[in-house]
Amino acid sequence: MMAVFNGWSIKLRYDLNLFMPFDFPIRKIIHVDMDAFYASVEQLDNPELKGKPVAVGGGAKRGVVAAASYEARKFGVRSAMSGVLASKLCPDLVFVKPRFDRYKEISLQIRSIFFDYTDKVEPLSLDEAYLDVTSNKKGNPSATLIAREIRDRIFREVRLTASAGISINKFIAKVASDINKPNGQKTINPEDVLSFLEALDIRKFYGVGKVTAEKMYHQGIFTGKDLKDKTPEFLEEHFGKSGVHYYEVVRGIHRSEVKSHRTPKSLGAERTFSENLSSEVFMKDRLEHIAEELARRVAKAGTSARTVTLKIKYSDFTLQTRSRTLPYYISAKDLILDTAIDLLYQQPLENSVRLLGISLSNLNGKDASPTEEKSVSVQLRFEL
């Protein structure tokens, strides 16, 4: 049986694993991910750094790696790694202080290229974004060709490389963008989606972190195929409400649309100190500066929040968070600071402190209602 949807001929069928029709929106999604963005910008602006292992971060003694060039990654250097460990892995590593204003400037140049093709652009960070090109400004039916054209333009106009993933939804497109990195792209066509997901490492699936992966390993789940073999009842019993999500996503069902205006789930600010702090008096002073910066970000976002979280990283790199949800919304610096200080004194510190941060969540005005989407029961047969 054939049907026509958005100009595509689609062959309808029933999935024998589900015993019910596939039910998900039909889209052409591109995930663009810049290659080692921060480090690449530094190499672009300073030709002496080209070809050298570069780490963007605080430094070899006290800092944390925010980003690493591909030359540094060959030695095992990764983001969020301490500068001390990174230097041991790569003795010739060059540390560069981050310049976020410069990264944002280039990110906006790249984003302007995206908008030449579609208004449905969802930035995830300065260096990656989703694009929905199901209907696009160029009238090009091939998402694969659009992705290649966008990457070529980024290279010509910005002189940086980008990778891309192309598929029927955001999840698969994001996974695909990592396959041919750096400076490559990968398309997962509709007819290949199920086999691709069955072969996928379970750690690549949305919502599967380290803890959940360990639980899945104990249940004999290592790949998408293993996950697909489990019943909805089994997944709900062992993974709660997330079980329904796992059951659907391994069958290519991911309904999240590209949202042009993403509402942040939280806002935060933090500082890493040049010397460890052991006195709450000095920490209160640092928290005041952090609260002031956070209040500016809250005002810029035009929001307020009920939940305040204090982040504490100790000198041994262990991390602790303390949270409080208030009965009212706050946005002023003084109220943010007072709550953070209360959390600081909530219990004794375990060690000297190298980082403090404050974040706000449970934001006011965040639309938690699900988006209504039209869908059809299909086996996709359109060209990406």
TrEMBL record:
Pfam families registered for this protein in UniProt: IMS, IMS_C, IMS_HHH
Binding-site positions, Mg(2+): D33, D127
InterPro entries recorded: DNA/RNA_pol_sf, DNA_pol_Y-fam_lit_finger_sf, DNA_pol_Y-fam_little_finger, DNA_polymerase-Y, DNApol_IV, PolY_HhH_motif, Rev_trsase/Diguanyl_cyclase, UmuC
Keywords: Cytoplasm, DNA damage, DNA repair, DNA replication, DNA-binding, DNA-directed DNA polymerase, Magnesium, Metal-binding, Mutator protein, Nucleotidyltransferase, Transferase
Cofactor note: Binds 2 magnesium ions per subunit.
Catalysed reactions, as listed in the record: DNA(n) + a 2'-deoxyribonucleoside 5'-triphosphate = DNA(n+1) + diphosphate
Sites marked Substrate discrimination: Y38
Cross-referenced SUPFAM superfamilies: DNA/RNA polymerases (SSF56672), Lesion bypass DNA polymerase (Y-family), little finger domain (SSF100879)
Domain UmuC: 29-209
Co-factor requirement: Mg(2+)
Catalytic residues, chain numbering: E128
Compartment(s) of residence: Cytoplasm
E.C. numbers: 2.7.7.7
Record-stated family: Belongs to the DNA polymerase type-Y family.
Family annotation (HAMAP family): DNApol_IV
Described purpose of this protein according to its UniProt entry: Poorly processive, error-prone DNA polymerase involved in untargeted mutagenesis. Copies undamaged DNA at stalled replication forks, which arise in vivo from mismatched or misaligned primer ends. These misaligned primers can be extended by PolIV. Exhibits no 3'-5' exonuclease (proofreading) activity. May be involved in translesional synthesis, in conjunction with the beta clamp from PolIII.
Subunit structure, as described in the record: Monomer.
Protein name: DNA polymerase IV
Organism: Muriicola marianensis
Taxonomy of the source species: Bacteria, Pseudomonadati, Bacteroidota, Flavobacteriia, Flavobacteriales
